[in-house]
Design a protein that fits this description.
Helix content is 38%, strand content 10%. The protein is an alpha+beta fold and 263 residues long. It has a 5-stranded antiparallel β-sheet with strand order 1-2-3-4-5.
């Protein structure tokens, strides 16, 4: 008995449903700057929502990048970079709109998760020009994220873009220098200078990462996990060893039955 092989679809699959947002905060998007009209407690509340919903500990550049987009377009900061084909999504939508419902852990972990994206990748910017998307990549919940790029036309390959979103945007603006983007570059330089934001897009970080990675991966970004004295990698898992053993055993039995039927 033979079984037809199925080719995995290489097209990008994007989660269409956006995270639920508060109607009150959504209707007030034409108001003053978020960072100006909300107190520190309210801002931290939204950061906490992102932490729980996306399993993402927001790095310092996250708030600063949103603030920069507000300086470009106070009414619509999520579309402030539409001139170069970018839109802020995912965690930025929660920061901008908030959420009226209680958030469960990992509730939004699949939002803007593309077909080849690993769980370590959280999309924060989508690019309409080249079907790519930008996100934070972190090896674990506790580790410091860096900015990376994934393109639909390059199956699963993740490209390092810098230590923060400003480094990524600076690289893009340098490549797109024209009369249409000159004012954007000027605003960018003024903001970065005023906020003393460090821009480091050198390749030294990724070279160091590849040198110390536990193993290479098909997405070319490598795997970095804690290694014990016996060179054994370990990551905590969300199920008990008993349940894990049951799942592995059941999968193995199904595999044996399928293999028997094929014969």
């Amino acid at each position: 008995m033979t079984e037809k092989s199925r080719k995995r679809n290489s097209n990008v699959k994007l989660e269409q449903r956006n995270p639920p947002v508060s109607k009150k905060t959504k209707d007030s998007q034409n108001g003053a700057s978020l960072l100006g009209c909300l107190n520190s407690e309210q801002i931290q509340e939204r950061i906490s929502l992102i932490d729980q919903g996306f399993y993402l500990k927001c790095p310092p550049d996250f708030l600063s990048f949103y603030e920069f987009c507000k300086t470009l377009s106070n009414d619509a900061p999520l579309d402030a970079l539409s001139e170069i084909g970018f839109r802020l999504v995912g965690p930025f939508e929660i920061l901008h709109y908030g959420s009226k419902d209680q958030v469960k852990k990992g509730q939004w972990s699949n939002h803007y998760r593309f077909y080849h994206d690993p769980p370590e990748f959280v999309t924060v910017v989508v690019c309409s020009n080249d079907q790519s998307h930008i996100g934070y990549f972190r090896d674990s919940y506790e580790s410091t994220p860096f900015v990376a790029k994934s393109t639909a036309t390059i199956s699963g390959v993740i490209e390092y873009c810098g230590q923060n979103l400003f480094a990524f945007l600076r690289t893009v603006l340098d490549r797109k220098t024209s009369c249409h983007t000159s004012h954007l570059l000027e605003s960018f330089d003024e903001f970065v200078s005023a906020k003393n934001i460090l821009i480091d897009d050198s390749s030294s970080f990724i070279k160091h990462r590849k040198k110390h990675q536990v193993c290479a991966t098909t997405n070319s970004i490598g795997l970095m996990i804690d290694v014990s004295e016996g060179d054994i990698g370990y990551r905590p898992i969300s199920v008990s060893y008993c349940k894990l053993d049951q799942k592995i055993s059941s999968k193995f039995i199904i595999f044996l039955i399928a293999d028997f039927l094929r014969d």
